[in-house]
UniProtKB/TrEMBL annotation, chain A:
InterPro entries: Fe-transptr_FeoA-like, FeoA, FeoA_core_dom, Transcriptional_repressor_C
Example of a GO MF term: transition metal ion binding
Species per Swiss-Prot/TrEMBL record: Dyella dinghuensis
Domain of life: Bacteria
Protein name per the record: Ferrous iron transport protein A
Residues covered by the Ferrous iron transporter FeoA-like domain: 1-77
UniProtKB/TrEMBL annotation, chain B:
Species assigned in the record: Dyella dinghuensis
GO cellular component: plasma membrane
Pfam families named in the record: FeoB_C (PF07664), FeoB_N (PF02421), Gate (PF07670)
CDD domains in the record: FeoB
GO molecular function: ferrous iron transmembrane transporter activity; GTP binding
Residue intervals of the FeoB-type G domain: 5-173
Membrane disposition: Multi-pass membrane protein
Residue ranges of the TM segments: 221-241, 253-273, 280-301, 321-343, 355-383, 395-415, 457-477, 589-609
Subcellular localization, as worded in the UniProt entry: Cell inner membrane
Alphabetically ordered keywords of this record: Cell inner membrane, Cell membrane, GTP-binding, Ion transport, Iron, Iron transport, Membrane, Nucleotide-binding, Transmembrane, Transmembrane helix, Transport
Chief localisation class: membrane
Name used for this protein in its record: Fe(2+) transporter FeoB
């Protein structure tokens, strides 16, 4: 599943970040910011127009990612913890 | 330690409290400039340590990683490596990390360490970390990292004492430099995870307060409502505090000019001082209060962490016209005045997004257009009621504001299509924790903005004002001349020359002439028209309005209104574009596209209006 398809409030574990094209600087930056295999992410909020951008929490940090950026991240959804 | 100087560079992730720490260390003893050839800010400060040694601190731009994306990050890397031309390599690197966000920040610490230079780690925001029950085993962290670690609280008096003591003692031994390749970079995260597991105990990933506030601030409906209220208050403040002060400064210089006129004999000297220098200084300094009020709010909102939230809410909307969420605040500021708006684009890290924002900012209806609009609308548009509730004059004014916004959207869209670089530029924006703004940081920020404006622009604007004064004064009217003096000046000839260009827009030579001083400052168009129509210097607006209705037609008036909505004015704005983008090419682009748009729009307005009216 793509990070961009995650429902609001859901948690997931990052599988990997895929390059949209060779030497994709945005994918590289996502990896530098901590989107690496095994990290927990959570979709905190979505923008008011077209549900874009997405607010993703990874560790203690919240990043706003546009949908097209979040599409590069594949994740596995976790059972929702109450 | 012996006396001498030690060059220290301060680095860290954005939002690690690095600038607050820098302000705490150096206070007002800072020098702000740009790195040569680019518009990235270079901040340096110094203070004397207890040992008598002078510590010279360079505050480098916030960076997430050395895989540099933006010019800021490239500079940080080059300076740290000692590869930046004209910049000596620092003798000691102080790496600042937010103790509440070590998962993200430690990775950069490890990257800095690999440079093989002496590094001290400052664990900042230790007070917040303790409050949130985060426990950090500093001793263990120090061992695992192989770096000296000190705790700091940048926002508390004395909160940097441990850091000062550490940097004032011996410079730590550098770890051996390590190669920087993709494989070893990927390993950094693994290292961070191991270190965190061994040293940090976090009861909760985020601050409960942030979560609660964000539920409201980022809510699709309430979030936008809150943003609207915040923006409305900022705008009101600019008008109710900034504008009267600006007007008072303008009046003050007029008064000074009038008094000079009494003391000095009439002649070129008096004219130069009164109409050139006083008017020019009045114009320049008149911008200052509005700039300061606006930046007070921008800095405060930035400090609290709200600004990135506003950008989050509006990003999608701005993206569709080739901008970014971060463009919103500078563009909104441009409704007061494009100058602080353009200066405010410094908060946009991406150079392409920043340039687009700078190019469209002057299309926002700034407050200097209002006197011209008020005069023309008052003179030519009847006070009709439309559909019982709307006032026709108000509707025309509203239409002019909308024209500016639509124009900006169209231009943004066109730039998006035309630019060579069609690649995707990321938003990837961190939403930091909410914080109480620190008065010291806001005051220092305001001082810097004010100083930049005065130091860098006064000269240019003053020179241009004096040139304007000279061409509208010389040569003086011949003896026995009947028309106003400006008629015989270089500006007069230019005005008549310009008339050939502007005749298709319905501008007579008087209007064409008034466009020349309007280039210095839009509002002076009113005064210039008063002069050429010889209504006298202190003409009541009513008298001038009367003279205008007698001398030109409604289509001409509409055409002129449209011209003012889009025309490349004023020269202060062009000067600030030059300053902020460091390029005359951008000034030329901005001048010519606005000229073309204004000309085309006025031409259509005039020809259509003539056909129907």
């Amino acid at each position: 599943m793509r990070l961009s398809d995650l429902p609001k409030g859901a948690s997931a574990v990052v599988e990997r970040v895929e390059d949209a094209h060779p030497n994709d600087p945005i994918a590289q930056r996502l990896r530098d910011l901590g989107f690496v295999t095994g990290e927990n992410v959570r979709l905190v909020a979505r923008g008011p127009i077209g549900k874009d951008p997405l607010l993703i929490q990874i560790g203690s940090t919240r990043f706003a990612l546009r949908r097209s950026e979040a599409e590069r991240v594949s994740v596995t959804v976790q059972e929702k913890v109450a | 330690m012996s006396a001498g100087t030690l060059r220290i560079a301060l680095v860290g992730n954005p939002n690690c409290g690095k600038t607050a720490l820098f302000n705490q260390l150096t206070g007002a003893r800072q020098k702000v400039a740009n790195y040569a050839g680019v518009t990235v800010e270079r901040k340096e400060g110094r203070f004397t340590a207890p040992s008598g040694r002078v510590l010279q601190i360079l505050d480098l731009p916030g960076t997430y990683s050395f895989d540099a994306v933006s010019p800021d990050e490239q500079i940080t890397r080059n300076v740290l490596e000692g590869n930046y031309p004209g910049e000596e390599a620092p003798e000691l690197i102080v790496c600042v990390a937010d103790a509440t966000n070590l998962r993200l920040h430690l990775r950069f610490v490890l990257e800095v360490k690999r440079l093989g230079r002496p590094v001290v780690l400052a664990l900042n925001m230790m007070d917040t970390a303790r409050r949130r029950g985060i426990h950090i085993d500093v001793e263990q962290l120090q061992q695992r990292l192989g770096l000296p670690v000190v705790e700091t609280i940048a926002v508390k008096r004395g909160g940097a004492r441990a850091l000062i003591e550490r940097v004032d003692s011996e410079v730590p031994v550098a770890a051996p430099a390590q190669p920087d390749d993709a494989e070893s970079r990927a390993g950094l995260h693994v290292q961070v995870r191991e270190i965190l597991a061994a040293t940090v105990n976090m009861p909760r990933q985020t601050a409960a307060l942030d979560d609660a506030l964000d539920r409201w601030a980022l809510h699709p409906v309430f979030g936008l409502a809150i943003l609207a209220v915040v923006m409305f208050m900022v705008f009101q403040a600019v008008y109710s505090f900034g504008k009267p002060m600006s007007d008072a400064i303008g009046d003050g210089f007029d008064w000074l000019g009038a008094h000079l006129a009494i003391w000095l004999p009439a002649g070129p000297i008096q004219g130069l001082l009164k109409d050139g220098i006083c008017t020019g200084l009045g114009t320049v300094l008149g911008f200052l209060p509005e700039i300061l009020v606006l930046f007070f709010f921008i800095l405060t909102l930035e400090e609290t962490g709200y600004l990135p939230r506003a950008a989050f809410l509006l990003d999608r909307m701005m993206l569709s016209v080739g901008l970014t969420g971060r463009s919103f605040i500078p563009l909104l500021s441009s409704f007061a005045c494009a100058i602080p708006g353009i200066m405010g684009t410094r908060s946009i890290q991406d150079p392409r997004d920043r340039l687009t924002t700078i190019l469209v900012a002057p299309l926002m209806t700034c407050s200097a257009r209002l006197p011209v609009y008020a005069l023309l609308i008052g003179a030519f548009i009847p006070m009709h009621r439309v559909m019982g509730i709307f006032n026709l004059q108000g509707l025309v004014l509203f239409a002019l504001y909308v024209a500016g916004i639509l124009g900006a959207m169209a231009v943004g869209w066109v730039i998006k299509r035309m630019r060579r670089d069609q690649s995707e530029h990321a938003l990837l924006m961190e939403l930091p924790s909410y914080r109480l703004p620190q008065p010291r940081d806001v005051v220092i920020g305001l001082y810097e903005r004010g100083a930049i404006f005065l130091k860098r622009l006064t000269g240019v604007i003053l020179a241009l004002t004096v040139i304007m004064w000279a061409i509208s004064t010389f040569p003086s009217a011949p003896a026995g001349a009947t028309g106003p003096a400006i008629d015989y000046s270089i500006a007069g000839y230019l005005g008549r020359g310009l008339q050939y260009i502007f005749a298709p827009l319905g501008f007579n030579w008087q209007i064409s002439l008034s466009l020349i001083p309007a280039f210095a400052a839009r509002e002076t168009a009113v005064a210039a028209l008063a002069t050429v129509y010889a209504v006298g210097g202190n003409a009541e607006a009513g008298g001038l309005a009367h003279a205008l209705t007698a001398n030109f037609s409604l289509p001409s008036a509409l055409s002129l209104l449209v011209w003012f909505a889009f025309a490349p004015q004023c020269m202060s704005t062009l000067a600030v574009i030059r300053r902020e983008t460091n390029s005359w090419r951008n000034v030329a682009i901005s001048f010519s596209y606005m000229f073309v748009v204004a000309y085309a729009a006025s031409l259509i307005t005039y020809q259509v209006a003539r056909f129907f009216l």
